[in-house]
Write the structure tokens for this entry.
Amino acid sequence: MNAHNPPATGKPVADRKLNETTKMAQENTLLSPRFYTTDFDELDRMDVSSVREEWDELIASMRSDPNKGHFKRNEEWDDITIDDVPVELRTELVDFLVSSLTAEFSGCVLYKEMKRRGTNEDIKELFSYMSRDEARHAGFINDSLRDFGIGVNLGFLTKTKKYTYFKPKFIFYATYLSEKIGYARYITIFRHFERHPDKRFHPIFKWFEQWCNDEFSHGEAFSLLMRSNPKLLQGRNKLWIKFFLCAVYATMFVRDHARPEFHKAAGLDIEEYDMRVFEITNECTRQCFPLMLDLEHPAFLPTMRRINELAIAIDQANQKGGVFNRIKKVGLQLAVASKFLRLYTLPTKKNDIPAISRMVPAW
Ligand SMILES: [Fe+2]
Ligand SMILES: [Fe+2]
């Protein structure tokens, strides 16, 4: 089968009535979480023998399934309906839930396909545990959307969302980063609400502590896969690593700034929160990436802010429509590209201690 094909599609889905959240999850904008497909045969050829001891230890812990009972509602859960959510917060809370759900489910779909297509026992076992975890994460978020009467149709999404093809090495960079940044986001939010329980406007945040440990181990697995193939972390590939770091950090910065009410209700300063997440992610990625973005560089934050302002202006031009705004949008897109280039060409910090092996979550 062609590696570019998306996972097995069932019979075509008729244009049945879709709810808004399923449509939101289906969107393919620059900022929305994507579904990926890759060259599964190449991936299947990965050989982890050079990191065997660490690999076996990680797989054993995933096999023991420490979060088996975690994604179930218990007495800690406070029932909530959409009427309990302040009106000004509703749109952004739903947007946060749908975007998180799509990202979790994207992992589930990709990992499941890797497991299904694989013949390499190491690869098959790893991806069966990771798809198991992501299915639980996605399901748990979808239950919260169902409480609001707007659950996403995940089966429909699998069949209809556009799949982006990435070579395995790009899957590794992108997925490793998204797992570690996912860990950093969940733990930062959890710790924040631990300090300010009165601000916790949804019970799902109580589940984030153990949840983030799953993301942490998924990241560990990708780190081992890359380290077992050190070429991925050397030479010209360093330029790709830098590109993915810039793209993933800038996307998160813009996406979070699009949810001012959400962060206001949580009592989180978006910029502080994002910088904290970048710091944690930087620390995590020291285990394998040969470089880190310099968060303290005097041009780092101003460039991020400018990219965000331009993204807002593009969004406004989109909403207004018309010839003038279409032309304006092209100019703004060029400006974003130039700012992104500025971000990309900022000096990075060299990582002197790569390959420090497995980490324990310490945040
Ligand atoms: Fe997840
Ligand atoms: Fe994950």
